[in-house]
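So, can you check this one?
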Amino acid sequence: MINQFFESENISPRYERKFVIKNLERQNLELLVKMHPIGFHEIFYKRKVNNIYLDNENLSNYSDNIEGVRDRIKLRFRWYGDEFGLIEKSMLEIKIKRGLVGWKQSFKLPPFEISKEIQSLSMYKKIINETLDNNVKNILKENRPKLFNSYERQYFLSFDGRFRITLDSNLSYCPIDLFHTLDQCRYQDHVHLILELKYDTEDDNLADEITNHFQFRVSKSSKYINGISLMS
């Protein structure tokens, strides 16, 4: 079922380099980004990102990442703004990784409600029962919510438009399953910052010049993997 997404020609590959940074104020890291000689400037606006990560009962996506499987995927619902209430605009995102190159496919989801009082099962049934592509519906039937995650994100773009940086702070993780509510039992991480450099594959020869300026070590980092590990 998932293999078809590795073979799709409708999505463009890109590289992603991640840096997990500890013991540095967000404002200081933001200043480092803006002072970069390539000329990064902030675009859009800082906003809250919310994710519900999905996996099967064997946590295959989690295991594939831990074991370093070359071809792997990550499934998530994503929306912006408030965590709870009526979520009118959200997407199912299928992140595909082949070695160091990544793709992403997105599918619009119907509105659903999420709260501290409503079991996730009702939310999930509503989504699956809506009119969706059959392939997407089958994926949702084979996987279940495993982790809720949120953070604040800022966006930066180089002046030539070829490189994008995201800066994530105030990370939060909470276990989730179909038979419980999303409560306040969560792990708050106000120590780590995650900086990510994203660019098209044809610009990989220039990426070292950009990352060397920061003098941080590239990290293998996944919020889903980090969250599941914290909850274990």
